[in-house]
């Protein structure tokens, strides 16, 4: 077989030689080399070659006129005839053409006139169409290759999840789930509202099996039993069904250890419904289904209820299960805070973490403190970055659930929105407690808090849509109050009667967070000389900063708006408000140091500083706030419920009043005179008439004349005091009596006595004389207050 090349007219006797020659023509390969250019050079070199061709094409001159072209052609032809003439040159070109395929280029096949147009046309004919220079496509494609290569060299960026607050309310209202925390699209039996006192629930038993197995550990003998799926029918959404006889069969499958633990967990679930949820109602019980509840949330609920079961078995179970549940809650927060999950799942995750924090608080704050601190930081940081504490209170929430077509749909949408609001408020309460417990600044941006308050508790407890509609109609206009604490632009809404405890508590705690933030920001950076010059009370240091200067006005504004509701709602609200006043007038760290927090030597060094503070109007106002906190707690009612921070605030109030009496002796003439008028610290105080006395450097505080207002005169001038109409002589004995009175109040708080503060007060009462070395008159019991 003889093959002839149509380009160079060469003939080949073997077909494989002809094909190799063709490949050489197309790829620019030496015909005597068995490898092509594409094989010899890598893809990177090929791309580089294409880029060179692209640059050459881009730098080609613009088309010229025919006259110019003819002139250049003639000149080029003359030069080619001069240089390319003679038989030797002809043979060399023939040889070169045979080796390198030069004759394939038009204009060099013959030794005539050099034709540049023909040369460019020949080049274009042998370049692939995708890289055609004449169309400029090679430039575009090669540029795209370069851009793709640059993009591939950048480090991978994690998937960015935008803050959820911008669409949160609309997403929650339009969800198909009946409850925010149990993703059930249709109605099911409400196990939490109707949980039996005895017996096992199949779905609950199945969900809690991993927890009971972990707690029982080596004592469990039911690990080798067959799975429950042999006896239980489950639907695709994870709902379990079982008959009564089958339920008994499942109960018999449990070993003794797992059975006892499961009974305790069932009891904890019941106690959560009866004791904890009424105080901090986050979960909407009428629509809450255990079947579709996440495992971690269910475990936290059961352990919260167990804190109300005062038995050794319950305490043992709670301590064993705490680390197991904490690990899973923390893993969920780390993995899903910014993952692509639904808003309902993310809010459920935040609620689980908030309830886990509440469990830590109720346990006294001693279980796994380092791990809990990490959970607190990650949870509040993620919630802040998602914008949950600036909720866009201008949003019309009523319109969102009213768009639902049916009455039942409106009720369900409203309940999801309400649970979302309460979850956000729960996180604010958690931040207040943890920032105080760990002595850090709050994570919430306290000057930008803007949130919805919960609706009336009766609406949240309505068991049917018709009952909810009947209760909703009278309050539809103000069903979703909101508040904001922007500096200088505080908005405190009028709360409908009856005012819910959670609403009032959140407003107070949010304001307290703002003051705590000022404490950590401005007071902690002051040196000892500055603190001494300002007599160791915060508001004088706050006066140096414009924003912190407005905290005192916020304190008075809250009492002006909510004075009457606070007295009616709960004693805890008044305790919190008075604690805010103490924080503005007292360096609490100094008083704790004087009470022995850092040892005897530190206490001895702190006592002279406390004496300087005690001679100021701010100290006397702090004593008034401390005594009023005692008065509010002594009038505590059963329905007042509990508070995360009430016991700590009451303990600190005891330290303030006791140390004030300890270091403030009466003058000798006042002590011997029985006719001196005493100020009763536990009398009711008209705070509006006091104004900012003790909170600012008012001119009238320098006056020595009396005003007729006993509380105002005490703050300005000082003088002897009494508690329960018993004269306080001051000194050690008066301080000890105050500590004992406060300790007895803490004993009465029972479940909400978070931390062993009452025991600390008893011990401090015994050792106060040894801890605080003061002058001899104090030890003999002579003392009081000074002007």
TrEMBL record:
Keywords in alphabetical order: Metal-binding, Nucleus, Transcription, Transcription regulation, Zinc, Zinc-finger
Family annotation (InterPro entries): XnlR_reg_dom, Znf_C2H2_type
Molecular-function GO terms, alphabetical: DNA binding; zinc ion binding
One record GO biological process: DNA-templated transcription
Pfam families (UniProt xref): Fungal_trans
Residue segments, region Disordered: 19-42, 75-98
Domain C2H2-type per the UniProt entry, residue ranges: 3-31
Biased segments, Basic and acidic residues type: 32-42
Protein name, entry field: C2H2 type zinc finger domain-containing protein
Organism name: Colletotrichum melonis
Taxonomic lineage of the native organism: Eukaryota, Fungi, Dikarya, Ascomycota, Pezizomycotina
């Amino acid at each position: 077989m003889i093959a002839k090349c149509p380009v160079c007219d060469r003939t080949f006797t073997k077909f494989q030689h002809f094909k190799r020659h063709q490949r050489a023509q197309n790829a620019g390969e030496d015909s005597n080399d068995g490898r092509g250019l594409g094989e010899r050079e890598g893809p990177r070199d090929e791309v580089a070659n294409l880029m060179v061709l692209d640059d050459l094409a881009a730098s080609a001159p613009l088309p010229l006129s025919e006259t110019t072209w003819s002139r250049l052609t003639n000149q080029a032809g003359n030069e080619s005839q001069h240089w390319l003439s003679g038989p030797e040159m002809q043979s060399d070109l023939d040889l070169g053409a045979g080796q390198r395929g030069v004759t394939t280029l038009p204009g060099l096949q013959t030794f005539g006139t050099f034709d540049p147009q023909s040369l460019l046309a020949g080049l274009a004919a042998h370049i692939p169409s995708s890289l055609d220079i004449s169309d400029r496509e090679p430039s575009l494609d090669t540029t795209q290759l370069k851009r793709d290569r640059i993009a591939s060299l950048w480090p991978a960026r994690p998937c960015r999840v935008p803050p959820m607050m911008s669409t949160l309310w609309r997403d929650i209202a339009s969800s198909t789930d009946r409850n925010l925390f149990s993703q059930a699209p249709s109605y099911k039996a409400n196990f939490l509202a109707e949980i039996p006192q005895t017996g096992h629930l199949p779905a609950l038993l199945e969900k809690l099996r991993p927890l009971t197995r972990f707690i029982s550990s080596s004592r469990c003998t039911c690990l080798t039993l067959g799975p429950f799926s042999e006896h239980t029918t489950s639907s695709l959404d994870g709902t379990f069904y079982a008959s009564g006889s089958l339920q008994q069969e499942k109960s018999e499958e449990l070993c003794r250890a797992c059975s006892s633990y499961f009974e305790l967990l069932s009891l904890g679930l019941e106690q959560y419904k009866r004791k904890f949820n009424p105080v901090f109602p986050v979960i909407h019980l009428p629509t809450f289904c255990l079947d579709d509840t996440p495992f971690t949330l269910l475990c936290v609920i059961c352990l919260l209820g167990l804190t109300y079961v005062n038995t050794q078995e319950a305490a043992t179970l709670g301590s064993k299960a705490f680390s197991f549940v904490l690990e899973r809650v923390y893993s969920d927060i780390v993995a899903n805070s910014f993952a692509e999950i639904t808003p309902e799942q993310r809010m459920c995750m935040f609620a689980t973490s908030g309830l886990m924090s509440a469990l830590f608080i109720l346990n006294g704050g001693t279980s796994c403190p380092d791990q809990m601190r990490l959970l607190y930081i990650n949870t509040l940081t993620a919630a802040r970055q998602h914008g949950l504490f600036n909720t866009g209170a201008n949003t019309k929430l009523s319109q969102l659930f009213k768009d639902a077509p049916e009455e039942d749909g409106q009720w369900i949408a409203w309940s999801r929105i309400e649970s979302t609001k309460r979850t956000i408020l729960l996180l604010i309460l958690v931040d207040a407690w943890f920032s105080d417990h760990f002595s850090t600044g709050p994570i919430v941006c306290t000057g930008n808090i803007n949130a919805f308050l919960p609706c009336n508790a009766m609406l949240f407890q309505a068991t049917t849509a018709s009952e909810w509609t009947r209760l909703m109609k009278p309050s539809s206009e103000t069903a979703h109050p909101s508040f904001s604490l922007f500096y200088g632009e505080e908005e405190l809404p009028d709360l409908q009667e009856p005012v819910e405890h959670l609403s009032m508590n959140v407003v107070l705690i949010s304001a307290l967070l703002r003051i705590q933030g000022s404490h950590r920001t401005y007071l902690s950076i002051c040196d000892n000389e500055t603190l001494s010059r300002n007599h160791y009370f915060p508001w004088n240091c706050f006066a140096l900063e414009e924003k912190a200067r407005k905290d005192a006005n916020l304190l008075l504004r809250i009492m002006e708006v909510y004075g009457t509701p606070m007295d009616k709602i709960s004693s805890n609200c008044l305790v919190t408000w008075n604690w805010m006043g103490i924080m503005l007038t007292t360096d609490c760290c100094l008083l704790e140091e004087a009470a022995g927090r850092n040892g005897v030597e530190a206490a001895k060094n702190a006592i002279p500083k406390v004496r300087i503070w005690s001679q100021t109007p701010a100290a006397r106002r702090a004593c008034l706030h401390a005594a009023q906190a005692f008065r509010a707690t002594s009038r505590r009612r059963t329905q007042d419920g509990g508070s995360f921070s009430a016991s700590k605030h009451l303990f600190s109030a005891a330290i303030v009043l006791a140390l004030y009496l300890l270091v403030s002796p009466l003058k000798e003439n006042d002590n011997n005179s029985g006719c001196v008028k005493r100020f009763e610290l536990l009398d009711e105080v008209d705070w509006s008439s006091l104004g900012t006395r003790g909170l600012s450097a008012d001119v009238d505080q320098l006056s020595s004349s009396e005003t007729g207002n006993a509380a105002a005169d005490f703050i300005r001038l000082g003088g002897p005091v009494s508690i329960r109409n018993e004269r306080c002589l001051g000194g050690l004995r008066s301080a000890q009596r105050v500590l004992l009175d406060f300790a007895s109040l803490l004993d009465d708080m029972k479940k909400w006595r978070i931390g062993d503060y009452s025991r600390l007060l008893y011990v401090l009462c015994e050792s106060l004389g040894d801890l605080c070395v003061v002058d001899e008159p104090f030890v003999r019991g002579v003392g009081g207050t000074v002007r």
